[in-house]
Design goal:
Shape of chain B: globular
Number of strands of chain B: 0
Distance between the termini of chain B: 53 Å
Number of domains of chain B: 2
Radius of gyration of chain A: 16 Å
Order of helices and strands of chain A: HHHHHHH
Largest sheet of chain A: none
Structural class of chain A: mainly alpha
Helix content of chain A: over 70%
Distance between the termini of chain A: 44 Å
Oligomer: heterodimer
Helix content of chain B: over 70%
Largest sheet of chain B: none
Order of helices and strands of chain B: HHHHHHHHH
Strand content of chain A: under 5%
Number of helices of chain A: 7
Number of helices of chain B: 9
Strand content of chain B: under 5%
Largest interface: A-B, 65 and 66 residues
Chain lengths: 136, 172
């Protein structure tokens, strides 16, 4: 029980400042880019998830932070297609974390895995939105 | 020099928060109203999200209480077969943690002979986490959360299999 509590507290200590920072930054971005997101994200089935995945690739953290960031961007007019690729790339592609990943698994593994997950993030985003459209 | 070392010791999350706060202060110097509007927007969002976060952290504690990383580690061995896939996927779903914690842990498993395909499957599924699901549903809805989770699970097999072919030489 003590170990579980310590582990949870450790995660909260790590996640909470990150979530606060992300919310603060996105609020600032939203004011700066008011009405501009819809011009960048037009709903294009290739470009939107591609841009979303690139943006997500530069941050690599726990999923909850990406949901908060993605959800807020969605409210501001970023397409769901881009946001889906963004949240998927955020958790599975990590350009900033690449040195740590290379140290743990080797260069070939790290580069191939990131590349594969980048492509998957785009494919999954397209499939998810297409499925949602079919079902609705 | 000493203060530089102290800053390096600060956890990444706090460094990020401090940087954003400094950015706000910088913006406020030039355009106070701009920073004020942004901060009010932040406060409004934060109070909406905080209730769900409390629930998530409570649920995380329960998961940590019952799911032990040692159990998953035990079942990811060299000849684990289908059972290995099951534990890699179950492990990735229930074990939450930042990458800088997960990488050394999984790197250690790799040294112990765990297949690359299983490691890829493990890293792929971090989006399918019941602990964080309430937040995903809150922002994107139930239908989206279910569909995206199914695809992520499916692609963890596909990506694991591809990486297994490329690196392990074979993937079972």
């Amino acid at each position: 029980m003590k170990k579980a509590l310590q582990k949870t507290i450790q995660t909260i200590k790590m996640a909470f400042p990150m979530i606060l920072g992300v919310l603060l930054l996105i609020s600032l971005m939203n004011v700066a880019f008011q009405g501009e997101y819809s011009k960048i994200f037009t709903g294009n089935y290739f470009l939107d998830p591609f841009i979303g995945a690139i943006l997500g690739s530069f941050s690599f953290g726990i999923p909850i932070t990406s949901y908060v960031a993605g959800g807020e961007l969605l409210k501001e007019g970023v397409s769901l297609l881009a946001v889906t690729a963004f949240i998927l790339a955020w958790t599975t592609v990590g350009v900033a974390m690449l040195p740590i990943e290379i140290r743990a698994f080797g260069k070939k593994f790290a580069v191939l895995r990131n590349l594969l997950n980048f492509i998957s993030a785009i494919i999954i985003a397209v499939l998810t939105i297409a499925t949602l459209k079919i079902l609705s | 020099m000493r203060s530089k070392n102290r800053f390096q010791e600060i956890p990444a999350g706090w460094k990020f928060l401090i940087t954003v706060v400094l950015l706000y202060l910088f913006v406020a110097v030039f355009d106070f109203d701009f920073a004020r509007i942004a901060f009010l927007q932040f406060a409004e969002t934060f109070f909406k999200v905080v209730k769900i976060l409390l629930f998530v952290f409570g649920f995380m504690f329960i998961v940590n209480l019952f799911v032990k990383t040692e159990t998953i580690q035990k079942h990811l061995g060299k000849d684990s077969g289908a059972k290995g896939w099951f534990y890699a996927i179950a492990g990735s779903i229930f074990v939450s943690g930042p990458p800088y914690v997960l990488f050394p842990f999984l790197g250690e498993l790799k040294k112990q002979g765990v297949k690359d395909s299983l490691l890829v499957a493990f890293l792929n599924n971090r989006n399918v986490n019941p602990t964080f699901l309430p937040v995903m549903i809150f922002y994107f809805g139930t239908a989206f959360s279910v569909i995206v989770s199914i695809y992520v699970l499916l692609f963890s097999f596909i990506n694991g299999w591809i990486m297994g072919k490329l690196l392990d030489g074979k993937a079972d």
